[in-house]
Specification:
Blueprint (H helix, E strand, L loop, with lengths): L12 H5 L1 H8 L3 H12 L3 H8 L3 H9 L8 H10 L4 H6 L12 H22 L3 H21 L5 H16 L4 H24 L3 H18 L2 H17 L3 H15 L5 H18 L2 H14 L16 H12 L7 H11 L5 H17 L3 H18 L2 H17 L3
Helix pairs in contact: 2-3, 3-5, 4-5, 4-6, 9-10, 9-11, 10-11, 11-12, 11-13, 12-13, 13-14, 13-15, 14-15, 15-16, 15-17, 16-17, 17-18, 18-19, 19-20, 19-21, 20-21
InterPro entries: TPR-like_helical_dom_sf (IPR011990)
Protein name: XRE family transcriptional regulator
Length: 407
């Protein structure tokens, strides 16, 4: 017997025959499925959560389109059972029918429909050429720029649509060269989605995005992208309070790929190692990694073949200051001021981080009044970009400044 206080949901059979319902099931669009169940059955989110055994906050995120994709077969089974899907609806969702002894006349129609659907998707993917890949890549780059300025919340719908379009094209691409290009682009785009999820503290979603990115990077056989997305995944571990595992992962990535990736990426990997070491309180390892990062940092702001990676002398100064801040290094304030002075105004979330670090450093130096305007500005930027990850730290710093000022 189910532990739920509600009975399994039962909708009129006609609901499952609707074109919009069938389309949601075929695409495994669970957000669309839940909305249609709510619309045509008058079913609340709380009841859907109870019937499907999915936590209500996650059901709310699914409704709002902010949850990551559902991939586990067991979860699809719980959804099908809880919503009372008839066998033909279960098969549209990609699940086996419950009544395997049922007449097969309907199955013939269903199999024909699947054949037609696959043919249509293959033909649509065949229309993707070099120009179309370039357009999709430009769209991802534009989303990256918007994310830096506006944050992930402002572009969530666009990001979801972009991921879906690239994944659909990649899944049905047949020509090897185009498929490889799409795999490369999927890795970059999923990595961006992963970093956005980290900043909204949706860490399980972030982990899944990075797993998808790594798989695509391996198919593309691109060592640089694989090293980068694997390195970013280490930040999920750090935010989960598992810095030792993050450090081990980053060291493995660096050792495995350092001779196969560009110098700018080697700088990024070494700086990430330094951050993990700083989180662990290992000052010697942190300084060694920072020295290694500085040694290989090339001139300029970025490389055209790595649009996902931006690190120059100012970004590195920010990183160095953020790491050494933990050890009371007196050069931290100047590093962070240098970084802030060199920012071009398009990295709003990054600026919030710099101002957080600078406020923290000034507070540690006994200058709470000087720290206060930086923390206030960081709060404005974090609110604008929707970065929950930064807002938590800003709230702690604000309380510390108020205590220091006797408020």
């Amino acid at each position: 017997m189910r532990a739920s206080g509600f009975q399994p949901i039962k909708l009129p059979p006609s609901v499952w025959e609707r074109d919009d319902m069938r389309e949601s099931l075929k695409n495994r669009d669970i957000a669309g499925l839940f909305r249609l169940v709510a619309k045509y059955g008058g079913i609340s989110q709380v009841r859907i959560a109870s019937a499907t055994e999915i936590a209500q906050p996650r059901v709310n995120k699914i409704f709002n389109g902010t949850a990551g994709p559902i991939e586990e077969l067991a979860v699809f089974e719980r959804i099908a059972t809880g919503l009372g899907l008839p066998d033909h609806a279960r098969m549209l969702l990609g699940l086996a029918p419950l009544d395997i002894a049922s007449p097969t006349g309907d199955l013939d129609d269903e199999h024909q429909e699947q054949t037609e659907e696959l043919t249509a998707r293959l033909e649509a993917a065949a229309a993707v050429d070099d120009t179309m890949v370039m357009i999709l890549r430009t769209d991802t780059n534009n989303l990256r720029l918007q994310d830096r300025r506006l944050g992930s919340v402002a572009i969530a719908d666009k990001m979801h649509a972009q991921m879906a379009q690239i994944e659909r094209a990649h899944r049905h691409a047949v020509r090897p060269r185009i498929r490889t290009q799409l795999a490369h682009l999927l890795a970059e785009t999923a990595s961006l989605a992963g970093w956005q999820a980290i900043n909204t503290v949706a860490l399980n979603d972030a982990w899944n995005h990075y797993e998808r990115a790594k798989s695509a990077a391996r198919e593309a056989e691109d060592a640089a992208v694989l090293a980068y997305v694997s390195g970013e995944q280490a930040y999920v571990l750090m935010d989960l309070g598992r810095p030792a595992e993050a450090a081990e992962l980053l060291q493995h990535i660096h050792a495995t790929h350092r001779d196969r990736v560009p110098a700018r990426l080697r700088t990024w990997l070494a700086a990430a190692e330094a951050e993990a070491a700083a989180t662990l309180g290992d000052e010697d390892a942190c300084r060694r990694a920072l020295d290694q990062a500085a040694l290989v940092l090339p001139e300029g702001d970025g490389d055209p073949d790595m649009p996902y990676l931006s690190i120059n002398v100012h970004h590195f100064a920010r990183w160095r200051g953020s790491c050494l801040l933990r050890f009371g290094d007196p050069s931290t304030v100047e590093d962070l001021r240098s970084s802030l002075a060199g920012m071009d105004g398009t990295y709003n979330r990054a600026e919030a981080g710099v101002r957080c670090d600078l406020g923290h450093a000034l507070l540690a130096a006994g200058e709470p009044e000087a720290a206060q305007p930086h923390i206030q500005r960081a709060k404005q930027l974090a609110t604008m970009t929707g970065c929950r990850r930064q807002r938590r730290r800003i709230e702690e710093l604000s309380r510390a400044v108020n205590r220091a000022l006797g408020r």
